[in-house]
Amino acid sequence: MTTTRLLPAWTCKCFSANISLLLVVLGAVLILTGCNNTMVVPGSKEGLMYQKAVAALNQKAQSLMTSGDSNGAVCRLESALDLLPEEPQTMSNLAIAYHSAERYPQAITLYEKMAQKQPAKAGFYLKYAGISFEAQGDKLMSMVSDPALSNQAKDNRKAALDSYNQAITRYESALSDRNGLNEQDAKMLDAQMKNLQTQIQRIKSGEV
Fold first, then answer.
1. Packing angle between helix 153-177 and helix 122-144, nearest 10 degrees?
2. ∠178-105-143 over CA atoms, to 5°?
3. In 3D, which of 6, 7, 5, 139 has the Cα closest to residue 75?
4. C-alpha distances in angstroms, 29 versus 49, 60, 89?
């Protein structure tokens, strides 16, 4: 029997909301470029149109984040990156939206990518990669105590330990790098690592 897989409701809403803007922008760009697969040149007419579309999508995403619609924000920001891949502000906003939507692996991937691409802020982005790893660990530990997921408790506990250890590694890297961090950040990360080490010991001992 063939099963039809439906897209999540937020995906459908997002597609509907974005398609008009994207069609207008891309249609205009095709006219300007003559459909020659020309690379968008910064400062050119088509480049400016892309930038305006990306700015509009970022603004809409910010509004959605404020209203609590993290998945809607993710959708707009992914569309913005489709228009201008690796645009720094969009990448940063998307990482935040991924984290808010509890899509931690995607947030971590983006934060670490930005740490590589922007060495002057590497410590800053590694800090947030660690925060996403830690949040992922917290989510996994909340699942350990869920009776409906009791058969997965052992695996979730193991995955949580790995996430916490990965968080500590990122915090250590951020402290070692220091780029983009201030003294308050450093103190916070040091305290957070100690808390995580305590949590890891409690998990290993079976206390939690």
1. 160
2. 115
3. 7
4. 8, 22, 22
* CA–CA–CA angle 51, 127, 57 (5° rounding): 20
Q: Rounded CA gap, 89 and 181, in Å? A: 18
Give the residue from 133, 139, 145, 143 showing the smallest Cα distance to 173: 133
- What pTM was computed for the model? 0.80
User: What is the distance between the alpha carbons of residues 25 and 82, in angstroms, rounded to a whole number?
Assistant: 12
- Whole-angstrom Cα distance, residue 114 to residue 88? 8
> Under 8 Å CB-to-CB from 34, ≥6 apart: which residues?
none
| Alpha-carbon radius of gyration of the chain | 21
DSSP string of 162-181, one letter each residue: HHHHHHHHHHHHHHHH-TT-
Encode pLDDT of 181-199 as tens digits: 999 999 999 999 999 999 9
